[in-house]
Each structure stands twice: as C-alpha cells, then as structure tokens.
C-alpha cells in the first residue's frame, strides 16, 4: 500500500518524460564516459591509484571501470573550483537563485533518466529512485528561494556609530557522500553550498560514482561557472587528499561513524568546519493506543526503504505489550507481501542490496541474532528472482525479528539492511530509558493517539530528527541531522545555510577616535 498523499513519499510533481539516450533495461548499461568532472567537462583524471569496477547490484554484472583520482587530480579540481568561486561569490543571491532554479528545471526534465541510472547503480526500486530525484530538485528550488534572502544585521552604537554583519561564503567546500542516496545526497550538499556562494568538489562513494556526474553536467547547463562544481572519484585515499587540502574551507560528510571520526581528525588539523551526517540505530515507539494500520505502515517505512539501507531507519521497534501480538502479526504479513525483484520494474518495491559483501554482512547479522536467541518471524534469507539475468544479484527477503532483547547485536549495531527488530515494552518511562540507551542519535519516532504523550516522548528522545505518527518522510524544508555519535550540523531547511556561510562583523566609527594611550 502507498503512503497517504499528505506528508508522504509521493512526488509533489510528476513529469513522465520519455527516456533519454541511455539504455534503460536491467543488465544492459555499459559505462562509456569518464566519471570525473572538472572545469565544466567530463575528464579522465591526470593521475590515479587504480581502476575500480562498478557493479550493477540487480545482476551482479560489472558495468565498467573508472580510475580512483590521485593527489594531482584533486589539486587541479581544487584550483579550478577556486577560480570559479571568485566569479560565483561576487554574484547577487538573486543571480545565483536563477541558476539553481534552472538546474532544478533540468533535473525535472531528466527525471526518468536520472532515476533509471540511480536504480541501475544502486539497486533500489525505480519507484523510490523517482522520489529521490523529486526530493533533489525540490532541494535546489528551496535553496534558490533562500539565496536571495541572505542578509546581515544593522546594529546601532552610541554617537551615531553602528555596525553591520555580512553573511559570506566559505570558499571551496568538499562534499563526500555515501552510496545509499547518491544523487540526493549530492543535491542536499551542493544546493545550500552554491546558494551561499561557495564552490564544491564532490566525491561519491566508489560504489555509486555515476549519477553525480549527471548533476555536474546539469549545473553547467544551468549556467554555473566552469569549475564551480567538480567531481573527483575514489575511496579513502582520494577523500583524504580532499580533506587535507589547504585550500579547502569546509567538509560536509555523509557516511559511517568510523569514517566520520577520521574526517573530523583530518579537518581539525586545518581548523576546517565539518558537517557530519553519520549512522544510526533509531527507536520507533508504538503505544497501544496507536491506529494499528498507521503504526504498521510507519514501521515498514522505518525499515524497508532502499532495502533497509537508510541512516535514519527506526530499526528498534518498541511495541507496547498489549498490542504486541496484533502488531507483529500484521507487520509480518505485510513484510512477506513486499515485491522483491528487478528494480526497474514498475511494481517492484524492494530491489537489490548494494554489494555482495554487504549482503553477506547483513545475513551475518541475522545468523548472529538467531544464535543470541532472536526468532526470525519472516525473511532473512537470500532471494533469487525467477528472471535468469537477476540470478547473481544481491537480493534478500526482508526480515522481522521477534524475541529480541536490548543486549543483542542486532538491536545495538547499525545493520543497514532490511532487518526490523521488535522489542516489547510496558511503560513510557521504561521505553524512553531503553530508546535513549545508545551512542547513536539520528532519528526517532512515536505512534500514539495521545497528543500530550506524543510531544512529551519526542522531547525526551535524544535524536535530531523525530517523527510523530509517521516515519522517514523528508520534506526539504526540514533540518535533518544527528545528536550524539550520529553527527552534527544540519542538512536541509534554513539551518543548512548557517553551515555553508560565515559571519563578518563590520564596526563603523562615525566620530573621533578616543585613544586610551
Ligand atoms: N546521517 C545521514 O544523513 C546518512 C545518510 C546516508 C548514509 N549514512 C551512513 O553512511 C553509512 C553507509 O555509507 P558508506 O558505507 O558509504 O560509509 P563510509 O563511511 O564507508 O563511506 C562514506 C564516504 O566516505 C569515503 N571515505 C571512506 N574513508 C575515508 C577517509 N578515510 N577519508 C575520507 N573519505 C573517506 C567513502 O569513499 C565514501 O565516499 C552508514 O553508516 C549510514 O548510516 C548517513
Ligand atoms: C530520505 N530519507 C529516507 C529520510 C533518508 C535520508 C538519508 C539517509 O540515509
């Protein structure tokens, strides 16, 4: 069943344009063009460590190879971005706004092509990839709207003197992204960065290097100066060259906690500000007075989007004991009905996980959960679709675990796969204590009909993004980010503008200087 149309995942704009030039059937795409982008064009990097293969998760097929960028290529990208920054940062907010609006328009126009590419490279269903693309152009439109509103303050001082503040761009910003929302994460970072007058160099996860280059082309077509948005490709070493570069002013990172720690350490050496969007193990609390159908829908949304590979997922589902049986029965029934298979088919709702090692890691968590006493209520095993071309894809059946305890690994660690753990509780006080007993703090949710309890519970949750009676919806107007080890800084909403700009204060003397000497 689809979410309700009010605050739902359904696109706010739909344009079903014909496919562009690329092949759109699973198992047919071949990488032909370079994946680095510098000074307004796709290029081969001037140096690099090695060639990396790009896989299609739906089939397990290698689609092509690309070179991991070396230090020289990173430096050229930074120098190109520095030159473009000089032009872009001098434009008015309204001029920047017009370019971002044009980029949003082109994304809408190329919606089907981008969504198809995202599905081919990530493995998520085309249904979800279209939603990701819609959230992406909405993000550009939102920050286009804010670009013209960037303003300072005027402060009166004695004797007619005064001061004013200017909100200025930072310079060359680096964006480093994860593989679960490749195009969307690049837009969440670049839209506020460019709106504030910065340049950006972006590095995707090496598992999903393709769609961000389409974004780079779109920015150029929309009218950003050549070099303003460059793409370098690679893994940890390329990321390190970026973070350590002396001309980089800021790093915005989305990824795991261990990598986030390294990013922060490197940035600390250059006193560079960082935004860290890290992992989570979020609680979803379902009280017995909830509308059961909504609570079940919420739990599915909280666990199974993008094959469960979602940072904000509410994977610890706390259910009040009175409705445990009814809730569990319904959630299992609905999970078993999820259509798994070729992600480019219209009716598929769960595609392939990102890679073979990741699939094995997720299945390993389920084996361990069983060893520790959890009961597999459904799924949890590899899935082989009937279509022969999909037989080497990375599919599994979504899993619901019962008989879970707070001390089990499946309840404590981020699995990043389609695995829901159900945990019974009795009282509000008890569940809050247990929900907050984690080093993570990205998201949390509550289902109840008691309005006072709903607000009391979210106020007590130690998490940056909380939902009442829904889960995992992401209007771009809302700030998104974590507490505790899930990171700091915010993406989306007005808040993100703070993280891509700096404040200058100018103090103006209107009288004579009174010296104390
Ligand atoms: N909070 C959020 O908004 C959010 C969103 C998506 C994913 N995530 C998190 O991301 C993780 C999954 O993504 P992943 O496996 O790509 O994470 P990861 O930390 O392995 O990699 C993330 C990015 O960092 C790069 N990288 C790796 N080592 C680096 C280093 N030493 N220096 C610089 N860059 C380096 C990678 O190449 C990749 O581009 C999960 O923990 C998930 O929760 C968080
Ligand atoms: C768009 N979602 C579903 C809120 C996911 C945000 C990015 C986290 O992985």
Automatic annotation (TrEMBL):
Listed pathway(s): Amine and polyamine biosynthesis; carnitine biosynthesis
Sequence ranges assigned to domain Aldehyde dehydrogenase in this UniProt record: 51-506
Primary localisation category: cytoplasm
Keywords of the record: Cytoplasm, NAD, Oxidoreductase
Single annotated GO MF: aldehyde dehydrogenase (NAD+) activity
One term under GO cellular component: cytosol
Entry keyword Oxidoreductase: yes
Catalytic activity: 4-(trimethylamino)butanal + NAD(+) + H2O = 4-(trimethylamino)butanoate + NADH + 2 H(+); an aldehyde + NAD(+) + H2O = a carboxylate + NADH + 2 H(+)
CDD domains, alphabetized: ALDH_F9_TMBADH
InterPro entries for the chain: Ald_DH/histidinol_DH, Ald_DH_C, Ald_DH_CS_CYS, Ald_DH_CS_GLU, Ald_DH_N, Aldehyde_DH_dom
Active-site residues per Swiss-Prot or TrEMBL entry: 277
Keyword Oxidoreductase: yes
NCBIfam families from the UniProt entry: PRK13252.1
Protein name in the entry: Aldehyde dehydrogenase 9 family member A1
Source species: Chelydra serpentina
